[in-house]
Design a protein that fits this description.
The chain is an all-beta fold. 0% of the residues lie in helices and 66% in strands.
Length: 90
């Protein structure tokens, strides 16, 4: 298994293919929240949200095998000067 990651500063399609979500981090910023969706596109359906991180320095880790998803989409809700990283594998 090779753990992959994507670091970004805006809404991002992390993966368009089936994968397992392992967690995410907000590295810095102010009053930020990031939502992670089980989506192979940018639809961001509320019922498909698998995680939400809020705060200036937050770290969520999901135990193996992770959360099986059809794809991963990350959506910034608010904040400035922020970047985040999502961890996953195929």
């Amino acid at each position: 298994m090779q753990i992959l990651y994507s670091t970004f500063t805006a809404n991002t399609q992390v993966s368009t293919q089936p994968c397992f979500y392992l967690g995410a981090q907000i590295q810095r910023g102010s009053a930020t929240s990031i939502e992670i969706f089980d989506e192979a596109d940018s639809t961001a359906t509320a019922t498909k949200r698998v995680d939400k991180l809020a705060g200036t320095m937050e770290d969520h880790k999901i135990p193996l095998p992770g959360i099986k998803c059809s794809g991963l989409y990350a959506k910034f809700e608010s904040g400035k000067e922020t970047y985040a990283t999502v961890y996953y594998y195929h």
